[in-house]
Amino acid sequence: MLLNKNSLSAERERGCSFAETFENASAVVENGGAITSTPTVDFGMTTDGTDDVVTYPAVNSVKSISFWITLQTTTEDIMQLSSSHSIEASSGTLTATGLTSPTFYVNGVATATITTARSHVTVTTATAFNADAIQIGQDDSFGQFKIEDLKMWTNVLITKETLDYTNNDTFTYRNKAVIDLPMTMENHDPTNVRTLDVSGNGNHGTFEDTPTKLTTSKGYSFDGTNDDLSCGNVGTMKSAAFWIKPTTTSEDIADMDGGTHTIEVGSGTITATGWSSPAIYVDGVVSSTLVAGIWQHVVITTATGFAASAVKFGKETTYLDGSLMEAKLLPDELTPLQVADLYITERKKLNDI
């Protein structure tokens, strides 16, 4: 039984191991739930506080639980997770019995205070536990509330991820790029010696010398001698993303501002010189290892934005010997969930031309 089938691919990549949308009673049963009494189930489950409960099979190695909830009162038992783990509200304060040093988020803010208004709740712990006796709607007593979009995760969600879920903002990053160079044949503009930016900001990549347009995939081949794409001043950025197939494991890749903030790989390790405490991802997961001769997706993020005032792809101190495609710069620090989503989304189109 696949308990996370109601989640998205990126959520599963991030560690979502259980997802329940409470679409209807039949869907809950199909998802492994066993319903006791007659809760109202219609894209959410409303319990009566008397005898309504849904149980599920075990979910192991849980570190985060997230859900929307509308409490009838500020004191309600919400769910049992195991014989020694549960979540409840008492006089407007959430507790997570049995969880080690839990962190609570309500509507994306680190707090355990909750009201009877519809709220998004996330509870995290660094110490994984097995949720092997799940009862939604009952712990010591029955709770009265409406619960929606319940998920359990094997990783600790970060503050920004909880806030994004609250604001339905998880996937809007896709439309926020300050530069977006797909490097497809459609966007290849040799007449004007450039590849087109599709972000809407007009930050086209101008050929300096001429990297060779690939004809069996998106992207360009850079000769390591004098090829690069110059995009100029594109504004403030916090994240860079691109696909790269380096010829060797030591290559200069990109320069954001004339040498202060750069991206390179040396002996197979990606570095982001000048970036403040950068997080580096390869193929959707935290890693700084890059190998030669195959396409890999690289994302670099920082919480400290900087002005990308003189962007070049394919050149830093020296020139790139290899291929690039799908280069993006974004004004926000992408979360691990967003990085996974970007990788999965673009991987599906890897062979487009």
From TrEMBL:
<dbReference type="InterPro" id="IPR013320">
    <property type="entry name" value="ConA-like_dom_sf"/>
</dbReference>
<protein>
    <recommendedName>
        <fullName>Lectin/glucanase superfamily protein</fullName>
    </recommendedName>
</protein>
